[in-house]
Amino acid sequence: MNAAAILGWSITLAQVLLVLAMACAAMRFIRGPRAQDRIIGLDTFYVNAMLVLLTLGIRSGATLYFEAALVIGMLGFVGTVALSKFLMRGEVIE
């Protein structure tokens, strides 16, 4: 086996495992008993989605996937902070 084949199988395995992790996070987001559990599920979901895009970018070599992952990372972080602040204080902007 050469290095390219090992890399291809590794990326495929990583993508499958990340999709499984996204399914678990979606289940936590949907079934979460509290709002805090739902926010953590959403946070985990966007991180896994960002990593799937990064593995797609590595596989294809296109820079568009990396840029989309960067945007998802920034917006996801801001959204998580805003939702957490809303749960703590009842308002986002003071």
UniProtKB/TrEMBL annotation:
Keywords in alphabetical order: Antiport, Cell membrane, Ion transport, Membrane, Transmembrane, Transmembrane helix, Transport
Subcellular location per the Swiss-Prot or TrEMBL entry: Cell membrane
Annotated TM spans: 6-27, 39-58, 64-88
UniProt xrefs under InterPro entries: MrpF/PhaF-like
Topology versus the membrane: Multi-pass membrane protein
NCBIfam families in UniProt: PRK06161.1
Similarity comment text for this entry: Belongs to the CPA3 antiporters (TC 2.A.63) subunit F family.
Name of the protein: K+/H+ antiporter subunit F
Organism per entry: Ancylobacter koreensis
